[in-house]
Design a protein that fits this description.
Helix content: 40-55%
Oligomer: single chain
Largest sheet: 2 strands, parallel
Number of helices: 4
Strand order of the largest sheet: 1-2
Distance between the termini: 13 Å
Order of helices and strands: HHEHEH
């Protein structure tokens, strides 16, 4: 993840640990160009999984670039399909931002 979504992702990782006993490796992509593909690749090779989260709509979001790159580099290391948790593919007025954002 990146940006404002990182605060929510940290909370999600804590909940996953407490309620499910699942350890998450959270990566903060502090820049998107260039983005740290090597760190993500190393994490996927270690864990066998990847969940990408961002606030933008799922279609045409930067998560698609991450998914494509990691799918190409780590196909044989993946134990499950790459998942994306993103915004809805609909236009939205800013007044409804709290309803729209993934949480």
């Amino acid at each position: 993840g990146w940006g404002a979504q990182m605060r929510i992702l940290e909370q999600v990782c804590e909940i996953a640990q407490k309620e499910l006993g699942v350890s998450c490796e959270l990566i903060d992509l502090q820049t998107l160009l260039p983005w740290d593909a090597q760190t993500v690749e190393e994490s996927v090779k270690k864990t066998g999984r990847l969940v990408i989260s961002h606030e933008a709509p799922i279609t045409c979001g930067f998560g698609s670039e991450i998914l494509s790159t990691i799918q190409e580099r780590c196909f044989y290391n993946l134990e499950a399909p790459i998942q994306r948790v993103c915004g809805y593919d609909v236009p939205f007025p800013l007044v409804f931002e709290k309803v729209y954002m993934p949480s």
